[in-house]
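Incident log, structure service

09:12 report received: a user says their structure output differs between two submissions of the same chain.
09:20 pulled the input from the user's history:
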Amino acid sequence: MRSDVRIGLRRSTKHVPILAAFVLGSWVGSASAQDEAIPDSIAADVEGSSTESTGEANFSDAPDLEAAPEEKQGVEVDWSLSFGGAINTGNTRSWNLAAGTDLLLVKEAHRLTIESLFNFGRADAAPLDPASDYATISKKWLFGSRYEYFFTDMDAIWGSLGLRWDPLAGFDLQTLANAGYLRAFVKEENHFFAGRIGYSYTNEKYVNDPPLFPGGNSNIHGLLLALDYENKLNEHVELLSSIAYIGNFNKIPAQRDAKAFQDNRIYWTVALLSQIAERLAFEARFLFLYDSRPVPAELANVDTTTIFSLVVTLF
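09:34 re-ran on a clean worker, output below:
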């Protein structure tokens, strides 16, 4: 089962013991390469960005702790790249580029996912005016990673790290570190549904210069709640989605002295993948990022990104 919400990424399975020894040398004993996968991080966090950022929008290939000993082999390694873009001319003049990569490592009860997305675009607001010129309309980079340890077939502990560079949304750099408990509610061959709860720490360095307050950044402690879903509609089409909510515990001076649970974030990603060939797929992905108290206050509460990509599986 393929079951990870990725930013424009598609994976296949290949066993690479040499890479396993280098990356996961701390894992000992025989390993299990799974024929079937259990999903988990945007991207939103975006905090997938996260979305998950950037980092809360992926789930896939969780280990099966009931695998027979003779089925246990090396580390499972999956790596994919995605590319997308658009160009408009004539009455509309604009261009946009999106590129991403995704890496998955699985061994027995352990799973590590790493993903990244870059998006850049420019447009001419008045293409019929000779004096008009292009302006940047999209400029962001999202990175997410998540480690999971399944101590039963349906239960896991997890920790994630996400980065978001998004100056048009006010962030010079947003760093998210989360950890908690995962429970799978539905775990079938072509259907997966899980919930997560945990602690969230966010450090935000804002674009504003001079800073709005001493230090120019915020340290936010909060509660994270998330749902991950996958449905393989048929052998060629998959629906993937993940949504995460973060509410603050502490007071945040930069956000108009927001008290507990007055700064609320939602990171949601949904993707539809269609297989074109053995190592090639088409993906349509939608990212939704909500911040109830953006910095500065005049910024919009919601940022959305829609990406169409070709997904190439390397191994």
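09:41 both user submissions now match this output. Likely a transient worker issue. Closing.
09:42 reviewer note: Residues 1-60 have pLDDT under 50 and may be disordered. Residues 17-23 form the longest helix (7 residues).
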